[in-house]
Design a protein that fits this description.
The chain is mostly helical and about 120 residues long. Helix content is about 50%, strand content about 10%. Strand 1 and strand 2 form a beta hairpin. Helix 3 crosses helix 5 and helix 4 packs across helix 5. The longest helix has 29 residues. The C terminus is likely disordered.
């Protein structure tokens, strides 16, 4: 997980929004084809939030400091990203092994007054 957040650190320090957005891509870049799997396998559901909090808020080796509110917002973003990466990997593994894809396409995410079903959006 440390190498993953080095990308975040570099993008944040250089104030480069494009590089920052690249830390949230739903696929591994060609120069690091195992990036998603490495990130996902670096922790587990029981400790993902604590590890991301440490990386973003408490790691003394970083050269920046986020405000508590901004840091907690980024923690929520990367915890959600970690969960989404797990779903992407499940679907990818199923497809590679020619098995039925059993991803969370029926999960509903509620945000405000809208509900999202992966791939569609509808008003609740």
């Amino acid at each position: 997980m440390d190498s993953f957040f080095e990308l975040f650190n570099h993008a944040h320090l250089s104030q480069n929004g494009y590089q920052l957005s690249e830390t949230l891509i739903p696929y591994s870049p060609s120069e690091d084809p195992d990036q998603l799997r490495t990130f996902y396998n670096s922790t587990n559901v029981a400790s993902v939030k604590k590890e991301i909090e440490h990386a973003l808020l408490y790691d003394k080796s970083t050269q920046y400091r986020l405000s508590t509110d901004e840091g907690r917002a980024w923690v929520e973003v990367y915890v959600a990203y970690w969960r989404a990466v797990g779903e992407v990997l499940k679907a990818s593994d199923a497809e590679r092994n020619k098995l039925p894809v059993r991803s969370s396409t029926t999960k509903i995410h509620i945000c405000g007054r809208r509900c999202w079903v992966v791939g569609t959006m509808t008003t609740c």
